[in-house]
DNA sequence: CGGTACATGTAATCTGTTACATGATTCA
DNA sequence: TGAATCATGTAACAGATTACATGTACCG
């Protein structure tokens, strides 16, 4: 039960439509918590009926009408009390490790291929994160308080990807010693 | 759709009951893919009706009867063809990052507390992994092929935890500069 | 006497994914 | 002309979590 809180968090700095929220969940917060537009529209209704957000309906011409959501005081209080609760993280479910547990029982090339593929993804991710770092967080010591948490998240992402890229190299080396 | 394959994988080396499988999913494979006993019993039924596993009913006295599951040839084939399919990983959903995105809007002590708590968990995890490494994977170069993938998973776990512990230190340092 | 281990399950609910549905505008 | 962007949603299904349910044996 934390997608609602992720949405409230995204609304801290700016009012957003469901559509714009869904885009945010593709980048930024979405690097650490992803959600589809279907989920977001569903949750926004729930949050609205609970008083956590306000809606402003904005008629448009040429495009469908907008519903711009904003955080209410009650929404802020929901965040405040949620912050004190225990932090849950469902351990990442990653099929790659199941595949690795199959080494020695299935054709090794397929596992190697999966690791190579994964490394490409990690490299891409790392490049993206570094680009964001260079653009917006070049001097972390002078960051306003409000940005420090976001920066730390990005830093976590960078380190994770770095670790993963290096691990892929080591994994490929060891997998190369497995007889086919 | 990969819990079935995780179960088949766990059955590669030994026949197990649903109960024992659930325990495996608390350690070993479970470090990278967790599942509750309810899920496992459900999936075992499905796998059985699809011919991926055999059941041997073992009457016991004093305890409920056992159903010992073993992998069939068809089960092995299911793994073989699954291995070639694309590897999915749902990005880890971690509330800690949502909390970090709240820095500057909620009481900072709570966020700091959450990071400290998380660091303790990572340290514990790291110690556990290292214990397993020392016990079973002291000389990775002489490992039989069948164990190499498992070792690589463990190595990934160790590196991830190490990275996380270090990051927590850096995070705590930067969070200490946030005005309350 | 109380807790843990063994051993299996059902039912309800909550989350997440996939597919379907609509429709104008802008850009190549 | 066709794809992408803006903008909202419904419906069905799959997957995960929580609660409930039962019952013996063994250890301290």
List key phrases describing it.
homodimer; 180 residues; mainly alpha; Arc Repressor Mutant, subunit A; 2 domains; 3-stranded antiparallel β-sheet; 7 helices; 3 strands; 58% helix; DNA-binding
Write the layout of secondary structure elements.
The structure is a homodimer of 180-residue chains.
Chain A: H1 3-10, E1 16-17, H2 18-24, H3 37-49, E2 53-58, E3 66-71, H4 73-83, H5 95-100, H6 108-136, H7 145-175
Antiparallel strand pairs in A: 1-3, 2-3
Helix pairs in contact in A: 2-3, 6-7
Chain A binds a DNA duplex (28 and 28 nucleotides) through helix 2 and helix 3.
Structure description:
Chain A has 180 residues and is mainly alpha-helical. Chain A folds into 2 domains: 3-83, Orthogonal Bundle (Arc Repressor Mutant, subunit A), CATH 1.10.10; 95-175. The first copy, chain A, has 7 helices and 3 strands. Chain A has helices at 3-10, 18-24, 37-49, 73-83, 95-100, 108-136, 145-175, and strands at residues 16-17, 53-58, 66-71. In chain A, strands 1-3-2 form a 3-stranded antiparallel beta sheet. In chain A, α6 (108-136) runs antiparallel to α7 (145-175). Chain A is elongated. The model of chain A has no long low-confidence stretch (mean pLDDT 95). The interface between A and B is large, with 70 and 70 residues. Chain A binds a DNA duplex (28 and 28 nucleotides) through residues 1, 3, 17-20, 35-39, 41-42, 60-67, 90.
